[in-house]
Each structure stands twice: as structure tokens, then as C-alpha cells.
Amino acid sequence: MDFSSVFHEIWHTAAALLLFLVIAVVIALFCFMVLGVTGELRRKFLHIIAFLTTPVMAATQSHWYAVAIVALLFAAVVYPILYMFERLSFYQNLFQEREHGEIKKSLLLLFFLEAGLVTVFWGLLGSKATVVIAILVWGFGDCMAALIGKRFGRHRIGWRIADNHKTYEGSGAMVCVDFLILLICFPLVGVSGPITILAGLITAVCAAFVELISKHGYDTVSVPVATAVLVYITLTFGSF
To answer: Pick from 40, 46, 63, 113: CA 20 to 30 A from residue 220's CA?
Structure first.
């Protein structure tokens, strides 16, 4: 492996990421400015764009280190930019942060998480599918939990260890969406039969539980990691 080939792979991955982001940002701005998408729906639209960067890079690259390096480089470049602009009014209007610095923190956690998952599960353990599935389960599950919980949540989960903003409706929605994603993904990577339903249900419930007890935005790390462990076990022992 020579330097020129490594550079080419990194550049190829970065180009795919940038192309995706350009297209996604154009669509997002149309939805925000023309269709008037705002509030929690806007936040989750941006959330979807952010976590889809992982499967996009994975789909265009066969070398794990290129994806991990690009994720770290992207965080290193974008974080200072967000830091410079976060005090401007257009920044607040666009991202609608719940608390100061939320977007910077979430972005840093997400891309460091991506690099870590890719390095461990794809690089060391040889399972690209684990990374992609874990991110999709967390991303769409978290999105649905927030949207359903904010709109229809009426019953707070009063457990001492739980985030006091979470509702049974939101957590239930996350379980359902995650279970559906796993039912779709598992057969595509060689898991079939009853194990698909059993492993899918266990993983979906565990993901929702970890999300429930994770506070201060750290579900960005805890849920994908926990999900990746369960998905890897399923792919290792449940695939034909």
C-alpha cells in the first residue's frame, strides 16, 4: 500500500461525502425556506443528513481507514467553522439549538463515533455491515422517538435512571422503527429465520432502553455502540 493509493482512497471518500452534503443541503434549504419546515422537524431533518454520512461513505469505499480518516478530518474542519458562526443570528435561525453549543458538540460526537465504530467493527473485526446497520438503527430510531414523543407523548417515564423528558410513546416508536429496520437489514446480510425476529426485537428494545437512560445528548454515542455490539453478535452467530 503506497501513499498515492491511500490519498486517492481518502480523496474519493471525501468527494462522495461532499457531493452528498451539497445535495442534502440544497434539499434542506428548499424545505426550510420554501416549504417552511421548522421546529423539531427541522432539527431531525438535519439529524438525518448528519447520520447518513456514514452509510454514504461506506457505500463508496472498500477501505475502512479512508472512511475513518475522512470522518475525523471533516470534524476537524467543520468544528471551527461552526464555532466562528454560532453567535450569528442566521446560525441560530437555521439550527434552532436547544442549548448553546449543541450542534458543535453533536457533530464532534457523531464523527468521532463514526471513526471509532469504523475502526473497531469494520477495520478490526471486518464487519462493515455492523457499522451501517448500527448507525441506521440509532439515527432513524432517535428521529422517530423525538418526533412522536414531542407530538404525541403524554406519559412521562418516571424511572430514576431515565431522562425525565422521555415518554412511553416516544420510546415505543423507537422500538417499532428499529425493529422494522432490522427486519429489513438482517436478511440482506445473511441472517434469516426466527433469529431475525428474535435478534431484531432484542436489539430494538435494547437500543430504546439505552437511549432512554442516556442524558445530555450522549445517546449519540451510547446507542450506536450498544447496537453495534448486538448487531455484530447477530451477524457472527446468526448468519448462514
So the answer is: 63
